[in-house]
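Lab meeting prep.
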Amino acid sequence: MSEGRFLPALGLFDLVEIFPDSLMSPEPILRLEGVSKHFGEFTALDNINLEIDEGEFLTIVGPSGSGKTTLIRILVGIEELSEGKIWLRNNRIEEMPANQRPTCMVFQSLALFPHKSVGENIEFPLKLRKQKPDQRKSRALELLDLLHLPQSFYDKRINECSGGERQRVALARALAFDPEILFFDEPLSALDFRLRKNLEKELKDLHQRTGKTFVYITHSLEEAMVMSDRIAIMRSGRFEQIAIADEIYARPVSRFVAEFMGEVNLFSVSGDAGGNPVGTEIEIQVRNTSLGSSMKLSKGASATLMVRPETVHFLTGDETADFVVGGVLKAEYALGSRTQYKVEADNGDELAVEKLREDRFLGQVGDRVRLGWNAEHAHMISGG
């Protein structure tokens, strides 16, 4: 099998046969209430509240030390919480041992047995549950089909498998006993770029085919954007924002989220007498005084005006926009299909502009330039 091949289509009855309890429901499958975790005087999780819908793909991202791994270890049952409640549907599970929870974890290391065959690895959780050998093998072969691995792999040694094949075996083992929730702790981080991109798509496809609930931890924003129904941004043991990818990217609730989600231009502004945002550190010309309410501020109120680099344009001639900033073009960087430009504003701040390669700006480094963007592409973050 080529590493980039997608999983085969399955009909509804195929899914019901392989995953009898996985049809989606509008009710939350997992609910956290006031979950905290302390290590001595250090608080790793601080009063976490969260609801995860059945069949959802939720990705948790955040910087190192934000609490992601601690949270998922508590959800799986390999770490005890300090305070709070965890509900799986209508049942409390925070004191339930990990091996009794209807969940499974795919670790970064995969934790496969290298001396055992593919079939033995897939069957391992079924063997622990005392299933008969013929039932275990039948289930393993079903899962090889689902993960689009040849049934001949059943007898293949793990140490003879490629990185992508091992990932699929780990997924098959995780699905073996039909868990209600699958947890993932950065399972793709050790793979090369091309294989990782292929498996991102296959994981999303697998999620859609099985209807299972996936809770995924990663440092990669791109993984989160590609695969998730919702993204949860963690910071210092709390959730900073939980929303769909487009909303978090375009309408972050804080400067931290705005910067965490990628390259961004941020301007400190305050409201003038007409309610228009005025730059407090950099001169921003407001060409449209009839801005919508989302761009208005009460007089003297502080906020942060955000605009992503791909929505900022170089203005030429008589061109104008709702917001205009002047500066000097300082650098140009080729980023594959895109080109990024760095512009130094008159106060010394650096602004970013990105354009598709075929729309490359024809100016030269050192040129005086005007940048513009419209209100529909900007976002106001309250609080300055």
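Slide two material, second protein:
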Amino acid sequence: MNTAEPSESSKTSSPSIDLVAGAVPLTRQLVDIYSESHHEQEIADAVEPALRAIENVEVTRRGNTLVARTHRGLGDRVILAGHLDTVPPADNLPSRLGPDPETGEQTIFGLGSVDMKSGAACYAHAFATLANSPELACDLTLVLYEGEEVATKYNGLNHLVQSDPDLLAGDLALLGEPSGAMIEAGCQGTIRVKVTALGARAHSARSWLGHNALHDLARVLVRVADYEPQDVEIDGLTYKEGLNAVVAESGVATNTIPDEAWAFINFRYAPNRSVDEALTHLYGVLQVGTPDSPAEGFSVFLDDAAAAAAPGLNQPFAAKLVEATGGRVRPKYGWTDVARFTELGIPAVNFGPGDPGLCHTKDERCPVAQIEEVSRQLIQFLSR
């Protein structure tokens, strides 16, 4: 059912990928293909023919983003999503297999072994294994996308949300971000604003002739420091808020009253708020007005706003996943692409092997046992 024609790039020579041999060898195959953000063509060219070789599967390619879907009429549909790009290498390619120096566990070392080619391997292997199996319990959509490690405008999943939302239709989405082989449900939303206090410059010996912008900003920073973040319980998980000043700057000279002072304020909020609700709450705390209507002596710039994602663990398929993983669930602290599925009305969770603390490090590595565990639990979850 490969209705879309193979891309021209996929017809060129590329490494041979085996999706069914196992998630561990597939992880090494993917890690060994250089795919820094903006350079994902080679890995997409390698994976595309392997997906097209699966019978009765529809494969679509948009740029270097691949979508494969079964159409077996099984009622429910689960989306398995993972990004193919990595951060720049740090002398950590190609992959190698050996004992972890700290734990002694058999481990895959190499760029992307955690973030997130092991997760992508588990998902692609499960898709290829079950696509035509009588054991498959639901239809599947596999999304392997480009541009996650860079700005949103390059994000292949975001492109699909905008151009082909029908390809992302489903009842539950899993994102293979590293979660230590346990479910990390939902994610915090994030807002970042730049608050600028505007004053009048003067010699510090005649300070009454000026207006100290840094003092005005300091009062805003005190409100941030005094803020009491909430703990919000959703579906039995506790999400923690955080409101922090993260960058600040002011000063002209050591004998001059500053006429400008600014700070970036980052609000990490729980999934009980929408973006608009979180913005309203934040502006109320800061008391500096809004970008469209700033308070006198201030300007406000909204630098970034991303929605939170609810855990969705009350959804039947999500409950089955919790059972398959032995009930090992925790809230996700941070923002991931699960929020893009939430915006489409699809419950989503993070589930993948690897320690997220090793992402983007020179010593990035993933235990083989975790890859095998996630692969086994995923296939169990998707089977009758």
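Talking points for slide two:
The chain has nine helices and 19 strands.
Residues 2-12 have pLDDT under 50 and may be disordered.
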